[in-house]
Amino acid sequence: METVYTQGVWLAEALQKRVMNYEKFWLFVTHVSDPKAAFLLCFPMAYYFSRRTGIAVLWVAAVSEWLNLVFKWILFGERPFWWIGESSLFETKPPQIQQFSYTCETGPGSPSGHSMVTSAVWWVMASTLASFLYSYTRSMLLMVVPYLLYLMVLVAVGISRVFILAHFPHQVVTGTLTGIVIGVILNHRVPDLRPLSFFVHISMGLLLGALLFHAALERCGVNLSWSIALAKKWCSHPEWVRLDTTPFSSLARDCGAMLGLGLSQYWKPGGWALPRAPRALCLALSAMVLYHFNRILLPTSPPLLFYCLFFIRYSLVPQVVMVFVPGLVHLLTEKKKNN
């Protein structure tokens, strides 16, 4: 793998030299392709366009991120920003590269979580939009447009991850292809209108499954904290190493979102039936609420408290989008109609 890693480092160096003038754009791309964006951004947009699509986006995001976590624990992928320092191959000719605020992620590098979750989630949205356009226009040309945009997004995300030294190129390609497969498969198995017990079992299954797998690997002598130590060692700015990039943060997010999805469908089966204009208002309000909700700083010590609060935060996200905000808008529009 040294040859693959070495070529990846030189490619990242060449990429930074060529497109450094567009640094803000690539940082924006890597920011909006963060797995949390699937929950906080893609899910509300998709839900107010189509209820089933929104539920599918949340479902696919949670399962694909959980699978990415398991794959990372198995594959032990390095990340460029620490492998350069750990390797002795660049002592005589170190690469001219730069780290960024999004570089220092703490989990293993293979496969890329950004690429995997983005390709899975955006497949759901692209295929839904393509079907919608074709059903209204019967134009094959228009139906192809969402898929072209989808490919452009995947390429941009991949370039951004290599550019900031978060991943090697082969990790991006692997994550992208795996995400596409997951998106295609899970998009046909959306848990719409399933009972609360189903989601409780899914949430607990994801949690216990990951914890048992983690314990088994630790029992076999595998140190699963190796990547966190390397991230702290080689990150150029210690404050860039954040607790919300650890594998257990991803696990808390996925389990919380699944429980929240079950509670949302339990509180209001079928959701609120709203016309187009109120749905646009719901999207604006949900975006505002989730934006400020995500900005709330959680205590990072002890870590267990952080993970519990992180779980609660993402269990509330589906309820905000599916129950609280639509319920408020429905109440206001009905009151105005009666007046």
TrEMBL record:
<feature type="transmembrane region" description="Helical">
    <location>
        <begin position="198"/>
        <end position="217"/>
    </location>
</feature>
<feature type="transmembrane region" description="Helical">
    <location>
        <begin position="304"/>
        <end position="329"/>
    </location>
</feature>
<feature type="transmembrane region" description="Helical">
    <location>
        <begin position="170"/>
        <end position="186"/>
    </location>
</feature>
<feature type="domain" description="Phosphatidic acid phosphatase type 2/haloperoxidase">
    <location>
        <begin position="53"/>
        <end position="187"/>
    </location>
</feature>
<protein>
    <recommendedName>
        <fullName>Glucose-6-phosphatase</fullName>
        <ecNumber>3.1.3.9</ecNumber>
    </recommendedName>
</protein>
<feature type="binding site">
    <location>
        <position position="79"/>
    </location>
    <ligand>
        <name>substrate</name>
    </ligand>
</feature>
<dbReference type="InterPro" id="IPR000326">
    <property type="entry name" value="PAP2/HPO"/>
</dbReference>
<dbReference type="InterPro" id="IPR016275">
    <property type="entry name" value="Glucose-6-phosphatase"/>
</dbReference>
<dbReference type="InterPro" id="IPR036938">
    <property type="entry name" value="PAP2/HPO_sf"/>
</dbReference>
<comment type="similarity">
    <text>Belongs to the glucose-6-phosphatase family.</text>
</comment>
<feature type="active site" description="Proton donor">
    <location>
        <position position="114"/>
    </location>
</feature>
<dbReference type="Pfam" id="PF01569">
    <property type="entry name" value="PAP2"/>
</dbReference>
<comment type="pathway">
    <text>Carbohydrate biosynthesis; gluconeogenesis.</text>
</comment>
<keyword id="KW-0812">Transmembrane</keyword>
<keyword id="KW-0378">Hydrolase</keyword>
<feature type="transmembrane region" description="Helical">
    <location>
        <begin position="120"/>
        <end position="137"/>
    </location>
</feature>
<feature type="binding site">
    <location>
        <position position="161"/>
    </location>
    <ligand>
        <name>substrate</name>
    </ligand>
</feature>
<dbReference type="GO" id="GO:0005789">
    <property type="term" value="C:endoplasmic reticulum membrane"/>
</dbReference>
<keyword id="KW-0256">Endoplasmic reticulum</keyword>
<keyword id="KW-1133">Transmembrane helix</keyword>
<keyword id="KW-0472">Membrane</keyword>
<dbReference type="GO" id="GO:0051156">
    <property type="term" value="P:glucose 6-phosphate metabolic process"/>
</dbReference>
<feature type="transmembrane region" description="Helical">
    <location>
        <begin position="144"/>
        <end position="164"/>
    </location>
</feature>
<keyword id="KW-0312">Gluconeogenesis</keyword>
<dbReference type="GO" id="GO:0006094">
    <property type="term" value="P:gluconeogenesis"/>
</dbReference>
<dbReference type="GO" id="GO:0004346">
    <property type="term" value="F:glucose-6-phosphatase activity"/>
</dbReference>
<feature type="transmembrane region" description="Helical">
    <location>
        <begin position="56"/>
        <end position="76"/>
    </location>
</feature>
<feature type="active site" description="Nucleophile">
    <location>
        <position position="167"/>
    </location>
</feature>
